[in-house]
Design a protein that fits this description.
The complex is a heterodimer of chains A (about 475) and B (about 160). By secondary structure, chain A is of the alpha+beta class. Helix content of chain A is about 55%, strand content about 20%. Chain A is built from eleven helices and 13 strands. In chain A, α2 runs antiparallel to α5, α6 runs antiparallel to α7 and α8 runs parallel beside α9. Chain B is an alpha+beta fold and about 160 residues long. Classes of the chains: A alpha+beta (about 475), B alpha+beta (about 160). At the A-B interface, β3, α4, β5 and β6 of A face α3 and β8 of B.
């Protein structure tokens, strides 16, 4: 046998379908064997019991009748047997105490002979005997009983019956059972094959889909059919591949966006530098202006890379040590830092902080959250607008809200504003030094602290960001 | 020396040959012990190895009188009873037994008689057996045809 054929056979034998089919086959075979043997055995036992009762009764009648004779003789016994008129028995033997046959109904009577049949010897030993055998298409029953007079055994009665009628019924029943069992077995085997084939085909389909995904095709899906555990597995697989696909798309977009964000300031720096080096006799004022632009672009590059590093650090799960941070105080100090920016944009900063609003968080994270939200609120505000920061406690939570009176965010953009490099107004954002990463950092930081962030339009124009964080309980320590 | 060894070897071989030639299996009928009686015949044959140099009838006497090796069979003669002699008269064999044999009655006597009849009627030329105790006839002329060993009526269609 060639190696591939052997391998194929080995795979088939160790396969799920083979094992399932073999298990079903054994189970069905065992059930059918039980079905074919137990009823027949039970019926046979019932007939045995009935025969014992019937033959023992007949032997008793004969024995009691013969016990009344003064002496057991062939003629006397024959007369009594004629009076009893027993029929349906294959043979009746009556012996004296020495086992000599006095009466025999066989076609070749054994009268005068010495009967050395065990049943007769046992009966002469005062034992009642019954044996029944089911073979050769008949029930052959034998019973023997002593003939007693005045407490002494004076002879024995032996009767034999051959019953083919009940045997025929049981044999016919057995044959019918066997036929039905064969048909049932064939049907069960066919159904087992179909069932196991369908079951293993579904597993194979899933296995193939997994292989396809492993090769990089995250768009692979399996169509769920049925309502069993495999269907649930299919659904889980589809969810998993959907997540993988989304993650892969985000990764690609992120790499593309990050490259673009880094490429734009680099191109500007190179253009400005080339202009300075290639333009002869450039006046000092222009050179200074170009160098200032180069410095501005380099600063933007630095900000972008710092934020990317920050996001990367968060993605890796690296967290600084958490300490008890007073959110109100952090908000006030952050706003003081942003005051020059606000003044430059003609925006008024207001802070309303309830004392004692404390969370357990890395200090820098809390600062990042407030700084990014307030900076955006200033940058995308209107001249003479305002930024209102409020901090208060509410049933075990600290609520931080930052609202502005600015240009607002269109409803369509709201679901995406926390995505990396997402900008509502790209031209305006770049112009104002935005990297498209600030809100992503806020979102990740809030999530890492076990909080939530919501964004909604403010009545009268502008936007309101609401951050909910678990309050620090000094007594419990969390 | 070599001649002595050769002669010794020849003698040993002859002795062994004699021993082998004098042993033969003789069928002796036994009574089935009451505990083992179920269905079928109440007596069973058993092969017994005996020295045939005594002759067929004497070998049968020895085999019949011996104890059975089988746990379910027993010698048909009761304890203390033995065959004291025999006499062949044409096809009839007269067996002489100890007087205690007469004490056997009923079916026990029948079983013992049947075992004697079946054992000795197996010898060529013997068709019937009579049993005597001294001059007293205990059982007169019994042959194999006088015995009913099994009932085959049930197994016949």
């Amino acid at each position: 046998m060639s190696a591939p054929v052997q391998k194929k056979r080995l795979r088939f034998v160790s396969g799920v379908q083979f094992k399932l089919a073999l298990g079903f086959f054994v189970l069905i075979a065992a059930l059918l064997i039980l079905l074919n043997t137990y009823p027949v055995a039970a019926s046979r036992d019932i007939v045995f019991s009935e025969k014992e009762s019937s033959l023992s009764e007949q032997a008793s009648v004969i024995s009691a009748s013969l016990a009344g004779l003064d002496t057991l003789s062939g003629d006397g016994v024959a007369q009594v047997m004629d009076l009893l008129g027993l029929s349906g028995l294959e043979r009746i033997i009556v012996t004296d105490a020495a086992a000599r046959v006095l009466y025999d109904t066989a076609s070749t009577p054994a009268e005068g002979k010495l009967a050395l049949i065990s049943e007769i010897i046992l009966a002469l030993n005062s034992r009642r005997v019954f044996y029944c055998d089911f073979s050769g298409g008949a029930f052959v029953s034998r019973a023997a009983m002593p003939i007693s007079r005045d407490g002494a055994v004076v002879g024995a009665v032996y009767i034999c019956e051959r019953d083919t009628e009940q045997a025929d019924i049981i044999l016919a029943f057995r044959d019918r059972l066997a036929t039905v069992s064969l048909v049932a077995f064939a049907l069960a085997c066919a159904l087992t094959y179909v069932f196991t084939q369908r079951f293993t085909t579904r597993i194979t389909r899933l296995s193939q889909a997994i292989r396809t995904v492993r090769e990089g095709d995250y768009a692979q899906r399996v169509v769920p059919d049925g309502r069993d555990e495999l269907t649930e597995l299919y659904s889980d697989f589809n969810s998993m591949t959907e997540t993988l696909q989304k993650t892969e798309e985000q990764r690609r977009r992120f790499v593309s966006d990050a490259s673009h964000e880094l490429k734009t300031p680099l191109a500007a720096i190179r253009l400005l530098a080339d202009s300075i080096t290639e333009t002869e006799g450039m006046d000092m004022g222009t050179v200074r202006e170009f160098v200032a632009d180069i410095s501005s672009e380099a600063e933007r590059l630095q900000r972008t890379t710092e934020k990317l590093l920050d996001l990367s650090r968060r993605d890796d799960g690296v967290r600084a040590n958490s300490v008890a941070v007073n959110v109100g105080e952090t908000a006030e100090s952050t706003l003081r830092l942003l005051a020059p920016l606000a003044e430059g944009n003609s925006v008024t900063l207001n802070c309303d902080a309830e004392p004692g609003c404390i969370v357990l968080a890395p200090e820098d994270d809390m600062y990042q959250i407030i700084f990014n939200l307030a900076e955006n609120a200033i940058k995308y505000n209107v001249p003479e607008g305002s930024v209102n920061v409020k901090v208060h406690c509410d049933e075990g939570f600290i609520i931080l809200s930052v609202e502005d009176t600015g240009i607002g965010i269109p409803d369509d953009d709201l679901p995406n504003i926390f995505s990396r490099f997402y900008r509502v107004d790209k031209a305006r954002s770049r112009e104002r030094g935005g990297s498209g990463l600030g809100l992503s950092i806020v979102h990740d930081a809030v999530a890492a602290l076990g909080g939530k962030i919501n964004v909604c339009a403010r009545d009268g124009g502008g936007t309101r960001f609401t951050v909910t964080l678990p309050a620090w309980n000094e007594e419990v320590g969390t | 020396m070599k001649i002595r060894v050769f002669l010794a070897a020849v003698c040993l071989a002859l002795l062994a040959g004699c021993a082998m030639a004098g042993t033969e299996d003789v069928v002796a009928y036994r009574a089935v012990s009451p505990y083992y009686l179920t269905d079928g015949p109440a007596i069973e044959p058993e092969e017994v190895a005996v020295d045939t140099s005594l002759g067929a009838i004497e070998a049968a006497v020895v085999a019949f009188s011996s104890d059975s090796d089988e746990p379910d069979l027993q010698c048909a003669l009761p304890d203390g009873v033995e065959i004291t002699g025999w006499e062949l008269d044409g096809s009839e064999l007269r067996i002489y037994v100890s007087p205690q044999y007469a004490a056997l009655t009923g079916h026990n006597r029948t079983v013992a008689d049947a075992c004697i009849v079946l054992t000795f009627c197996a010898i060529d030329g013997i068709e019937s057996v009579s049993i005597y105790s001294g001059d007293t006839l205990l059982t007169a002329r019994l042959g194999v045809d006088d015995l009913l060993l099994v009932d085959e009526s049930g197994s016949v269609e």
